[in-house]
Backbone:
């Protein structure tokens, strides 16, 4: 086991994959200096500028070229810096990368990992704070990964690189410095959730940074006599239906929590599926449908809070209402 | 120029302890300015020289590094500083911060968090002016890094196709975040690319405010006369890191030291002295700028934060009130 930050964990996984397979390359802006979050630190020194590629500010061609690289035998990792800039490359991702394998009748494969950090990031305002995971979950052909912890960032990045199809890999900008134990060689299968805390009264489902909010909410609920199960989805497409629905069937109540705007968020998909399949009661906790503001009081309106999660859970798991 | 320098220096100090990317640990000390600040220190002559040739009603689009353009266009310093402090009295009511600083009352249509995104907006604004028969023009600032994004090409071509009144201004500080732009760019950069699609371009020493002013004057006159778009390619240098908390350690210290020797303010001061302007008069300009910025800082610090309820205003009319 080794203690690593969330960004070191990803850099370590990528370095291992690059050592194991000469076809793994990374491309994006500022990678040669380690990337703006240090998530590529040391890689260009080890693998050279041909494999850790500094690019012009050309998002559509970074993404489009990566599709071409993948079709011609490489396994590219694309860095978009923040998901907001990936919108400059949306055709290349959605119409090209995601559709290629199907549209050409399975002749080509696009083994591509696109890293596009999401989330609020202190005072970064409306164009650097979005959480757009639901957009990508909507697109057939894309896998969508949302790690919340260093070990997952290590194990999921390995699995994403091995998956052979396009993966939208969404790290969270406020998690880079988080530290945790990482087991070398770990693989976290895509589509497998992790139960962080067992409970019997209510199921809290979340991903990315909001997982912490749920863990804190579960402690608070415990002191109020409500036993909450906490599930970190880790990938939202595919999502671990068995774990989530099994838990919801046992507790009869499910709260899904995400930092993204609640309207049209992926929480709606989970809540609807859980209600359809298990008949459980459901609540969603997400951001209001407002852009992220710069000033703290405005930005805070977009943050999901422990209090909101506790209130939602208590409203479902109120004593006497439990089946 | 003195006002821009004073503003940037004050903002830089106020941001220490603020948000940190660049692999640095977040400081525990809260900063007066929390958000990322892209300082234009060292690039003042471009903003000042170009904007001296614009009227208050001309329009301007900017980049993430937009304080200088905004000040030079005539924006209110108190409202700008309050915006950086995230206060209700800010030009954007605390919603945008430095990276989105804007003052539409003086034609400044906004800084932008997305590289090159201001360019299509600039040509659209110019097309509106033309369609509506207005005499104003648009100044479109962008960095050297922006020339490698598609919207650069598309916007320049568009301006030629419709013969639009735009002055494109490439503020070439030779670097894009941590990456030197030269090795990432084919050909001779913005001016050469502009000429290849029919936008006449002029290269100028962007640290020489008189040279910038003279070149801008000529190009602005041509644009105003209806000759179509023009491009000014101004060579300058980013004195600070990419953002205010970035020490810029990836740059060669010798290169930085050399660049600091052609400080646009020093060049302008020396020239004024050589022409017989009294040192006291120059010092008075600096003192006035410092006093103005000090007052803006004090006012910003004292101003109220926005009401959280304002997070829900100015989003859209249809459906307002339905947040979930
Ligand atoms: C489309 C897009 N890609 C990447 C970024 C991240 N980014 C912000 S500023 C910057 C460098 C821009 O360089 P340049 O245009 O030369 O302007 P300068 O910062 O030197 O003023 C980058 C890459 C962005 N904001 N938008």
Residues:
């Amino acid at each position: 086991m080794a203690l690593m930050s969330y960004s070191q964990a990803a850099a370590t996984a990528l370095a291992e994959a690059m050592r194991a397979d000469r076809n793994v390359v990374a491309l994006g802006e500022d990678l040669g200096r380690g990337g703006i979050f240090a998530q590529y630190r040391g890689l260009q020194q080890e693998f050279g500028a041909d494999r850790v590629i500094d690019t012009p500010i050309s998002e559509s061609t970074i993404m489009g070229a990566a599709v071409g690289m993948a079709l011609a035998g490489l396994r590219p990792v694309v860095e978009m810096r923040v998901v907001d800039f990936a919108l400059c490359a949306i055709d290349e991702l959605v119409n090209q990368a995601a559709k290629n394998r199907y549209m050409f009748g399975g002749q080509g494969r696009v083994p591509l990992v696109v890293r596009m950090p999401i989330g609020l990031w202190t005072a970064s305002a409306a164009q650097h704070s979005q959480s757009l995971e639901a957009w990508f979950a909507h697109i057939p052909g894309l896998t969508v990964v949302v790690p919340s912890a260093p070990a997952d960032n290590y194990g999921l990045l390995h699995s994403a690189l091995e998956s052979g199809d396009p993966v939208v890999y969404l790290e969270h900008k406020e998690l880079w410095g988080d530290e945790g134990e990482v087991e070398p060689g770990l693989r976290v299968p895509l589509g497998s959730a992790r139960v962080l805390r067992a409970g019997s009264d209510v199921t809290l489902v979340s991903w990315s940074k909001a997982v912490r909010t749920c863990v804190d909410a579960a402690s608070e609920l415990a002191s109020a006599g409500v036993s909450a199960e906490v599930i970190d989805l880790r990938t939202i497409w595919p999502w671990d239906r068995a774990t989530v629905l099994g838990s919801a069937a046992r507790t009869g109540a499910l709260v899904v929590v995400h930092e993204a705007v609640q309207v049209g968020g992926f929480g709606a998909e989970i809540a609807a599926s859980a209600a359809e399949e298990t008949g459980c009661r459901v609540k969603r906790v997400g951001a209001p449908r407002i852009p992220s503001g710069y000033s703290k009081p405005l930005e805070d309106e977009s943050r999901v809070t422990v209090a909101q999660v506790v209130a939602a859970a208590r409203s479902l798991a109120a004593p006497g209402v439990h089946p | 120029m003195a006002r821009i320098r004073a503003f940037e220096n004050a903002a830089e100090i106020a941001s220490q302890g603020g948000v940190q990317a660049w692999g640095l640990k977040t400081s525990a000390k809260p900063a007066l300015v929390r958000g990322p600040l892209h300082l234009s220190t060292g690039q003042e002559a471009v903003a000042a020289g170009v904007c001296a040739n614009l009227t208050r009603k001309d329009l301007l689009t900017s980049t993430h590094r937009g304080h200088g353009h905004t000040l030079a266009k005539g924006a209110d310093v108190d409202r700008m500083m309050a915006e950086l402090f995230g206060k209700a009295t800010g030009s954007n009511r605390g919603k945008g911060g430095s990276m989105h600083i804007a003052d539409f009352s003086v034609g400044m249509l906004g800084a932008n968090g997305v590289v090159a995104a201001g360019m299509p907006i600039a040509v659209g604004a110019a097309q509106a002016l033309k369609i509506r028969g207005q005499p104003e023009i648009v100044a479109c600032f962008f960095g050297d890094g922006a020339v490698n994004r598609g919207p650069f090409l598309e916007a320049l071509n568009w301006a030629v196709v419709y013969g639009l009144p735009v002055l494109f201004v490439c503020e070439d500080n030779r670097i894009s975040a941590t990456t030197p732009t030269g090795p990432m760019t084919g050909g001779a950069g913005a001016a050469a690319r502009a000429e290849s699609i029919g936008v006449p371009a002029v290269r100028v020493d962007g640290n020489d405010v008189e040279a910038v002013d003279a070149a801008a004057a000529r190009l602005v006159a041509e644009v105003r006369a209806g000759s179509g778009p023009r491009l000014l390619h101004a060579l300058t240098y980013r004195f600070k890191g990419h953002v205010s908390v970035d020490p810029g350690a990836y740059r060669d210290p010798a290169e930085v030291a050399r660049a600091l020797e052609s400080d646009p303010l020093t060049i302008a001061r020396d020239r004024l002295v050589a022409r017989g302007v009294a040192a006291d008069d120059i010092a008075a300009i600096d003192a006035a700028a410092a006093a103005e910025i000090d007052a803006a800082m004090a006012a910003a610090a004292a101003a109220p934060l926005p009401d959280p309820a304002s997070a829900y205003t100015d989003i859209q009319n249809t459906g307002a009130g339905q947040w979930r």
